[in-house]
User: Which sequence fits this backbone?
């Protein structure tokens, strides 16, 4: 009988840091290129497994999930009891989250702009799990069918016409998968370095296959991962109910100058 060995897992950036920790929770600053959970080709190389094996959190539960290439603050509950309370608080809207996002293009919308519309899953394309955001009027919001409402407040922080880049603060009012990325794609300002919602979604397929080319990197502006960063995070402690607030600086690649 021939024993088939699993292929080696892709390399990840394991340089996470613990920002805050007590007996119930841990706030982690996650680098880009590190999955929160085991999935796909990633099993051992994920934040939850690393927290269990290196950090001594055997029951770590990621409360606010980030995409593999999204960096920044994520909350891990260290016990089932803490996970249950934090999960309820998240669903009840007690969490406040702000992101920093570097986008392709010079922002011409109002300096503070609220994007409200619908977001839905599109199947049958190159990538089956891609979302599409569509702006809607108030009369259309109640007729979404299988789509969900999505609202994000964007604030322009800085722009550079020479590099054709803008730095934004993004505050999601709703919490839909890929909400910020899909919304910015629809507005004409895709996230810099985004392989799925950027210039060519087939780059995402090649990334998953481990076959990205130098031309792909050039098309993405040379960015190692999508420039979306979980910057600020506030939430009530699951047991003391004290409001905790944290901030993590963005990676150096987010500078527009």
Assistant:
């Amino acid at each position: 009988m021939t024993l088939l060995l699993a292929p080696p897992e892709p390399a990840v950036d394991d340089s996470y840091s613990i920002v805050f920790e007590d007996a119930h929770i841990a706030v982690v600053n996650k680098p880009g290129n590190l999955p929160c959970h085991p999935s796909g080709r990633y099993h051992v190389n994920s934040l939850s497994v690393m927290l269990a094996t290196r950090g001594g959190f055997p029951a770590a539960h990621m409360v606010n999930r980030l995409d593999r290439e999204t960096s920044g603050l994520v909350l891990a509950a260290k016990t089932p009891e803490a996970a249950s309370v934090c999960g309820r608080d998240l669903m009840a809207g007690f969490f406040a989250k702000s992101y920093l996002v570097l986008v392709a293009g010079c922002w011409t919308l109002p300096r503070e702009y609220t994007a409200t519309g619908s977001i839905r899953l599109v199947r049958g394309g190159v990538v089956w799990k891609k979302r599409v955001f569509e702006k809607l009027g108030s009369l259309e919001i109640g007729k979404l069918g299988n789509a969900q409402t999505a609202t994000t407040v964007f604030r322009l922080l800085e722009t550079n016409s020479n590099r054709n880049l803008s730095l934004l603060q993004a505050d999601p009012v709703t919490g839909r998968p890929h909400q910020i990325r899909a919304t910015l794609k629809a507005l004409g300002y895709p996230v810099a370095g985004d392989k799925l919602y950027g210039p060519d979604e087939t780059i995402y397929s090649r990334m998953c296959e481990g076959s990205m080319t130098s031309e792909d990197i050039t098309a993405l502006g040379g960015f190692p991962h999508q420039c979306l960063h979980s910057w600020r995070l506030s939430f009530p402690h699951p047991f003391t109910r004290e409001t905790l607030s944290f901030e993590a600086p963005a990676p150096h690649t987010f500078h527009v100058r």
User: Anything to note?
Assistant: The CA atoms of residues 195 and 207 lie 8 Å apart.
